[in-house]
Design goal:
157 residues, alpha+beta, two-stranded antiparallel sheet, two-stranded antiparallel ribbon, 6 strands, 49% helix, rod-shaped
């Protein structure tokens, strides 16, 4: 019976650690959201526009980024900041013009505006891609399995 009692204690310890996972992952997501917010703040010309939050859901957490300029900041845009990574016909030295409600791919317009286009009442040459969300996704894929393993390993110490 001693062996059975030891197994039951060990299983209880494992269960206790597994029950802590949502809280631990929530803390990890909060920390990640704070780091991402700081990154967006350095990339964005209007840092208050991009917000990052960690939201608890029944089976984990979501990292949510929002704001009027989130795509502008995350993916970059402009004749000088073509991303080149996404397969899209407009992913060239061009960008969306809010004023004209179209992509500026017309060579005459590109020549006329000399690589700049109107955005929020100003002329801009673009925004380099921040890639914050993309990089955070890579970080999560690399770190979370080891992080979870360490939490569960506590049951065996």
């Amino acid at each position: 019976m001693q062996g059975t009692a030891a197994v039951i204690r060990r299983l209880d310890a494992i269960k206790a650690q597994i029950e802590k996972l949502p809280e631990e992952i929530g803390s990890y997501a909060d920390t990640l959201a704070i780091k991402m917010q700081a990154e967006y703040d350095t990339f964005s010309s209007e840092p208050e526009d991009v917000t990052v939050t960690a939201e608890r859901i029944p089976k984990g957490c979501n990292i949510v980024c929002g704001g009027e300029d989130i795509f502008f900041v995350e993916f970059g845009t402009g004749i000088f900041y073509s991303r080149g990574l996404l397969p899209h016909p407009y992913n060239v030295a061009a960008s969306w013009s809010e004023t004209h409600a179209q992509f500026l791919t017309d060579p005459k317009k590109l020549a006329k505006y000399k690589g700049y286009w109107p955005y929020n009442g100003k002329w801009t040459s673009g925004q380099p891609a921040a890639n914050v969300f993309y990089e955070a996704g890579k970080t999560v894929k690399q770190e979370v399995p080891g992080y979870l393993e360490k939490i569960i390993d506590r049951a065996f110490t």
